[in-house]
Design goal:
CATH topology of the domain at 258-362: Thrombin, subunit H
CATH superfamily of the domain at 258-362: Trypsin-like serine proteases
Shape: globular
Number of strands: 19
Mean pLDDT: 80
Order of helices and strands: HHEEEEEEEEEHEEEEEEHEEEEH
Structural class: alpha+beta
Strand content: 25-35%
Distance between the termini: 70 Å
Bound molecules: arginine
Radius of gyration: 23 Å
CATH class of the domain at 258-362: Mainly Beta
Largest sheet: 6 strands, antiparallel, barrel
């Protein structure tokens, strides 16, 4: 009897301790999630964590190997519907490719497809995450921070971009007009806090060539794309959080979809550190976008150039100053992989209702990108 009482006290004290320890109160969602986990023998994690190699430690590996359980059990919480799912098994995204090296030796390499996220975390998601923070590194492993050397010779964060190839970055032209490649370096690795990126030299590369879109217009920002070529390719390995983002497919049909934009721009500072933030946005057709932009100070005669595309128009959900060059990322139809839809270019204010943000369309500049890569014999 007394032992029984003692046991309950132990449970009670322990729960209290855990609650205090984690510094937050468990919400009802968390309890629901625990139940979902128990019933389904799975773990509630961010959707993307279920499909990465790095997540293997965390998610119980079930027999059955490569094939993923197709029924998706959603957990509570997360910012977007279905963002947290109950994951039963992971499948490996790595493909072994065998080819001949320059000495004609056969060698096998592990290859990771573009657009696949990389998770590196081993905690279950609690539902009261900071609003809109990219919770962990590896969610957008292609986003890079670009640094510029200032007059004092110090490297300072300049803007962001995305890896479309291990040694090529796509970013916004309006940051790179008549600039010198030697003044720039970039860091990859899926880090979310800028300060942590600065410490990480392993994943830093020098920019050796800047190729601006030949039809860029500095006043109107038409064709706002630039390619940065790096001194050395980033390594995409099983243990780091680097990957490339896919190019938009030619036969694209994604009307009415929602996509994501992430960046270190305005509104991303928490306690003095800049943290990568993400937001989900609806794509907006060019005709609707032009129509909506005409109702702003741009006026009734404003014409939205063909090299742009739009997303957003929902209150408080937008990219903003400092996010220029970041990618607008959409899912390849029917896949769990992201492609580069647009480069953050400009907007009228940030996050006003019915005023979408304007992006340089990657679809429109795709042939230019492929031509430039071709000239350097770089294949995607
Ligand atoms: N021009 C800004 C920059 O380069 C981006 C502004 C994006 N604005 C927006 N409302 N989506 O940082």
């Amino acid at each position: 009897m007394s032992l029984y009482r003692f046991w309950w006290r132990f449970v009670f004290v322990n729960c209290l301790w855990v609650t205090v320890q984690s510094g937050r109160r468990f919400k009802r969602e968390d309890i629901v999630n625990v139940a979902i986990e128990l019933f389904n023998n799975c773990k509630c994690v961010y959707d993307y964590q279920c499909s990465t190699v790095n997540g293997e430690n965390m998610i119980d590996q079930r027999s059955g190997g490569e094939s993923r359980n197709s029924t998706k059990i959603t957990c509570k919480g997360g910012r977007f519907d279905g963002e947290i799912i109950c994951c039963k098994q992971t499948y490996t995204n790595w493909t072994e490719i065998t080819n001949l090296d320059y000495k004609n030796n056969t060698k096998t390499e592990m290859f990771l497809k573009c657009g696949i996220q990389r998770a590196k975390i081993n905690v279950r998601v609690l539902t009261d995450e900071e609003d809109g923070n990219v919770p962990f590194n590896g969610e957008f492993p292609w986003i890079v921070a670009i640094y510029k050397k200032n007059i004092a010779g110090r490297w300072v964060f300049y803007c962001s971009g995305a890896l479309i190839h291990p040694k090529v970055i796509l970013t916004a032209n309006h940051y790179f007009r008549s600039k010198n490649a030697a003044d720039f370096k970039v860091t990859a690795g899926g880090y979310i806090e800028l300060s942590r990126i600065e410490d990480n030299l392993n994943s830093t590369r020098q920019v050796v060539e800047i190729v601006n879109h030949p039809k860029f217009d500095k006043d109107s920002l038409y064709n706002d794309g630039t390619l940065l070529f790096l001194n050395e390719a980033f390594q995409i390995t099983k243990t780091n959080s680097i990957n490339t983002i896919c190019m938009p497919p030619d036969d694209l049909n994604i009307n009415n979809s929602r996509c994501l934009v992430a960046g270190w721009g305005k509104g991303s500072t928490i306690d003095g550190t800049r943290v990568l933030k993400k937001v989900d946005l609806p794509l907006v057709s060019n005709s609707k976008c032009q129509e909506q932009l005409r109702r702003t100070r741009l006026g009734r005669r404003f014409i939205l150039h063909d090299s742009f595309m739009c997303a957003g128009g929902e209150k408080g959900k937008d990219a903003c100053r400092g996010d220029g060059g970041s990618p607008l990322m959409c899912l390849l139809p029917g896949e769990r992989r992201y492609f580069h839809m647009g480069i953050v270019s400009w907007g009228i204010g940030c996050g006003s209702e019915n005023v979408p943000g304007v992006y340089a369309s990657v679809i429109k500049m795709k042939s230019w990108i492929l031509d430039e890569l071709n000239k350097k014999e770089i294949k995607l």
